[in-house]
Amino acid sequence: MLKIALIFHSASNDNMGVGALSVSEVAILRGIAEARGIPVAITVIDSLAERPPYVTGADIRIRATRPLRKPLDFFRAVRAADLVIDIGGGDSFADIYGPRRLTQMLLMKYLTHLARRPLVLAPQTFGPFRHRLSTFLARQSIRLSAITTTRDSLSTACLREMGIKGEIIEASDVALRLPYDPPSPRSEGGPVRVGLNVSGLLMNGGYTGNNMFRLQMNYPQLIRDILRRFSDHPELCEIHLVPHVISWRSGGVEDDYAASLKLQKEFPSVTVAPGFTSPSEAKSYIAGMDFFMGARMHACIAAFSAGVPVVPMAYSRKFAGLFGALGYNETVDCTSQSAEEIMARVFDAYGRRAELVQSQKAALATGLEKLARYEAALGDLMVQMARQKGAPRA
Of 179, 186, 263, 318, which is least packed with CB atoms within 10 Å of its CB? Predict the structure, then answer.
């Protein structure tokens, strides 16, 4: 039995995007285990959470710990594994989110190295790293890792600029593998289902409340203008607000669901999707849309990988890096484009949605082909570790 620990994944995060990474990683591991005949036991080393876990199964164990407060407890957890996989929360391996988050990231990586367990850096965004010390520490940890995988070319370039000379696998986002239930066939001639993911974080001006992401327009006003235009569209549109960060107990600055409910009071004709309890449930709902747009990247990945024409509304470079690397160039940039430009791009894409389906299919095939590189490398390492399983370990 190969024991695999997942770090910087989450089994119960309010952010369905972070959850999508974890559910997809588990699906990938199960696929490799079945194809290569390797029994696995997966431990998700997670923070304490009230939300019921959505990563479940007989092969799954949730191990709650607090690395900053109890580093020895975390060390014991990774020491008990044969292999450790770190996905960095998707885009958190950077020094732009503050010292506490980076300190925890580096501590967990170095404790894994100290435990002498192979560390796999799963597909994620790397950087930016703006400070010498964080750049140095990140570079040293990456050099010690067994596999380093980016999910876009911008991250690959970032690592090369940092001085990483070893092999870098440029893959794509693991959430392309997120399981979901395809929608039931619908009769022709009904309204066009338009899905809009509204970011509670952007509606509130970011964590600081003062446009911390430096958007070039009034985001709440842009959302209202989009809703009005779709409500008045010559084609009959059925508008769905689809939250992708859903606070389990109480609302907060990031809560898309609370933001959507507030908008529904202004636009009573819109439908607010239910408070999803899992990433796969969210993707299954999004798969029923005819057109989609949103500022949560993994809500857009859910649409993209389910064949729904989508316009990602970027507030960071991770959007363009991911979708651009696949040849899908419908992303709008809220940090550099005006509201008028974004509106024009959104409704142009809406008018070309049948064309988008075709370009999306080709881009998805590219993404899955790139992701297969990570799956192959991870599978080879798992076989190697399984063969060594009977040998004494230090």
Answer: 186
